[in-house]
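Obj: model holo form, ligand = PRP.
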Amino acid sequence: MQHVTILDHPLAQDALTHLRDTTTTTPDFRKYSELISKLLIEEAAALLPVSKKPVTTPLTDTDGLVLREEIVLMTILRAGLSMLTPAMHLFPKAPVGFAGLARDEQTALAKEYYWKLPRITEQDTVLLLDPMLATGGSLLHVLKKIHTAKQIILITIVCAPEGIKTLTAAFPDIRIITAAVDEKLNDKKYIVPGLGDFGDRYFATE
Ligand code: PRP
Ligand code: URA
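Output (holo structure tokens):
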């Protein structure tokens, strides 16, 4: 799995355990989602290229490093909204795109209901935010529409092996940063052990 980085940071794994726990309250679910998202986005940022830039301090001239590429944030409604605030804190000038997708409860197939994207050029790196990668249907739908970007880094909290296989078969260059690759999907296409329906737990709509 050369495409996938699993973040084993103790704070990330502690937060993930709270997210998995069925007794976690909504305020805590939101708190731990934000914390784990921040850690995962920081891990993704470590992949970004930098270039040297001369800088003048109050004392002398020296060389610093700056991010070389423009970053575009892209989030998948609804659950991806949980990752957007930490992402915007780290990339305050990044344009943000939104894909509204919902899985049909019977078929687990994703259907698009909203699409709003900034211009994505061949120089851009897209940080794609969605906490759950299950069958891969939702993300595949998005990737097909944004593949012109120079680089796409998917940041997700829990993945199923099935979803990773689907995405990497179609987009071999994609990088995936996650806190867990779980065991499997169940017959309703939920991730096992997983954490249940992320959107419902985060937005208290169960
Ligand atoms: C969840 C999740 C992903 C999708 C993953 O969204 O946030 O977008 O399921 O499943 P897949 O890999 O099988 O496509 P959901 O459709 O439940 O919508 P929500 O975010 O509005 O709750
Ligand atoms: N979407 C979720 O929120 N959870 C899953 O386990 C699968 C898809």
